[in-house]
Amino acid sequence: MELFRAEKITKQFSEKFVLSNFSFEVAKGDKINIAGRSGIGKTTLFRLLLGFDNLDKGFIYFEGKSLTDEKVWEVRRKVAYVSQDLNIGRGLVRSLFTETQHYKANLLHMDSSDKEILQQLAYFDLPESILNKNIEELSGGEKQRIAIVNALLLKRSIFFLDEVTSALDATLKIKVLDYFLGNDEFTVLYISHDTYLPENTSLRTLKLDENE
Amino acid sequence: MSETVDLSFFSMVMCAVLLLVPVLVASYLKLGVTRSLLVSTVRMVVQLVLIGFFLEFLFKLNNAFVNIAWFLVMLSAAVFSVLKSSGLKIKAFVFPVFLSLLLSNLFVVLYFNYFIVHLDFIFDARYMIAIGGMVLGNSLRSNVVGLGDFYQSLNKEEQFYFYRLSLGASRFEAKLPFAKRSFTSALNPTIATMATMGIVSLPGMMTGQILGGSVPLVAIKYQIAIMVAILASTVLSIALSILFTVNYSFNKAGVLNKSIFASK
Questions:
Q1: In Å, how far from its chain's centre is CA B226?
Q2: What end-to-end distance do the CA atoms of chain B give, in Å?
Q3: Residues in chain A within 8 Å Cβ distance of B165
Q4: Which of A94, A152, B142, B249 could form a disulfide with B234 if both were Cys (CB 3.0 to 4.6 A apart)?
Q5: Do A87 and B157 touch (CB under 8 A)?
Q6: A to B CB pairs, distance under 8 Å
Q7: Contact at 8 Å (CB) between A66 and A59?
């Protein structure tokens, strides 16, 4: 099933083109590594798909329908996005989880039980005590993992991951990539410089500089 | 209690002599402010004399419509002052901010006059203009801080705002922490002032009333009431300013419209 389709999209900031006449498709279950030198527009691509930025030219479709200003709200309810920006909020980690689950759009699925949260924390090597810590006190790597857990607790199946392993050590990097790339149900678009690939995963690479 | 001693012409001359202290120090140290010091003094004198005559006229006339009209003039000046220092584009915000300051301050002042002072004539010039001016002046300062802070921090921390949207937050849910912070930063100065009031400083209104012959205990009661009125109008005016401007300031996709900021 086709999730996203981009046709000849172009985006420029003042004089500089970050994407030019770029086309691609994303089908359910795809694992796509978005590659290209820095400044080429990898993060911009995520922002365009989530409606945080507007196209200059071209079309984007989500589930077969044109991605309008109204449609982007649907994407935001179906895609779990972990940005490279680590400004994920203030206050207790536990409150971040609770608040996210209590957004009206997320109330449809059941609250994550404590057991579920603890399982996720344990998988990513985070202690239970982190729930009662302030987000401001966390290290970059801890924040990254908290953002990942927060995204997983949403129980969505499409993920946009922007450099989510940059502050993690080698073992954790593998754990994170295993988790996302090894799950057949997940559709994953990710930006990362890691070359690790779990066994039996068919990965597609989307090179943004190819069209130049 | 005696009436305030009126200041004679000779008193004002003595006051001018006192002015020599800052003028001489400024020119001796070549501070470069002598000229502006004198200009400002003259401006102050002229403006106050004019407003003095005007207020006397206003108090004597004491007509509801005229009082409201003057209240609106003060309000308009306030709106421009809010917008000029908030970094927001005046053209786009002038109407909604005017409306929110009008509704919140008019409500608070009339409530004050009717329920607290029990005036028979709630548009009484002395109360409407004096109390109105104080409430307006103070909620104005908070409004500059609050409204500016709301949009500036949404702009500066756009990534955080986007993060919340991407988690499924509605427009309202995504903006909530920004609104909360803007309320806090707007209320903090007033809260701090209240905590030290009477110890660190005697508020201007109390000083004025005591000089005017009021018993300190009466002046205190007024001061308490006016601080509460300021808090109420601050909260109301920020809530309304955000409410009235938020739709215009974001596009349909929920992204902040950058053209709301005044170009520097």
A1: 13
A2: 54
A3: 50, 52, 76
A4: B142
A5: yes
A6: 67
A7: yes
What domains lie within chain A, and their CATH numbers?
Answer: 2-211 (3.40.50.300)
A44 and A19 Cβ atoms separated by less than 8 Å: yes
**What is the total residue count of chain B?**
264
On chain B, the residues whose CB falls within 8 A of the CB of A83 are: 159, 162-163, 166
How far does CA B5 lie from the centroid of its chain?
Answer: 30
Tell me how far apart the alpha carbons of residues B235 and B190 are, in angstroms, rounded to a whole number.
11
pTM for this entry: 0.86
Q: What is the per-residue pLDDT across B226-245, written as a single tens digit (0 to 9) for each?
A: 999 999 999 999 999 999 99
Burial class (CB in 10 A: 0-12, 13-18, 19+), B244: middle
B230-233 CB contacts, 8 Å cutoff, 24+ apart: B230/B134, B230/B135, B230/B138, B230/B139, B230/B190, B231/B187, B231/B190, B232/B108, B233/B104, B233/B105, B233/B107, B233/B108, B233/B135, B233/B136, B233/B138, B233/B139
d(CA A145, CA A120): 10
Query: Position A16: which residue type?
Result: K
Q: Do B165 and A69 touch (CB under 8 A)?
A: no
Query: What is the total residue count of chain A?
Result: 212
User: Does residue B118 contact residue B136 with C-beta atoms inside 8 Å?
Assistant: no
> For residue B251, which residues of chain A lie inside 8 Å, CB to CB?
69
Task: Work out the burial of residue B51: count CB atoms within 10 Å of its CB; fewer than 13 is exposed, 13-18 middle, 19 or more buried.
Answer: exposed
Q: What's the whole-number mean pLDDT along residues A133-145?
A: 95
List Cβ neighbours of B144 (8 Å cut-off, separation of 6 or more).
B81, B82, B85, B86
Give φ, ψ of A178 to 5 degrees: -55, -45
Tokens describing residue B187? 């209320």
Contact across the interface for B168 and A150, Cβ inside 8 Å: no
Q: What is the pLDDT of residues B135-186, one digit of tens each?
A: 988 888 888 889 999 999 999 999 999 999 999 999 999 999 999 999 999 9
Q: Are A49 and A78 in contact (CB under 8 A)?
A: no
Q: How far is B166 from chain A (nearest CA, A)?
A: 5
Residue A68's region, left for phi above 0, alpha for psi from -120 to 50, else beta, is: beta
Helix or strand (DSSP H, E) at B112: none
Query: What ipTM score was computed for the predicted complex, to two decimals?
Result: 0.93
Min Cα separation A128/chain B (Å):
23
Contacts of B166 in chain A (CB under 8 A): 50, 76, 79-81, 83, 160
Q: Going by C-beta distance under 8 Å and a sequence separation of 6 or more, which residues neighbour residue A10?
A: A17, A19, A20, A21, A22, A55, A56, A57, A58
Say whether pLDDT at B106 is over 90: yes
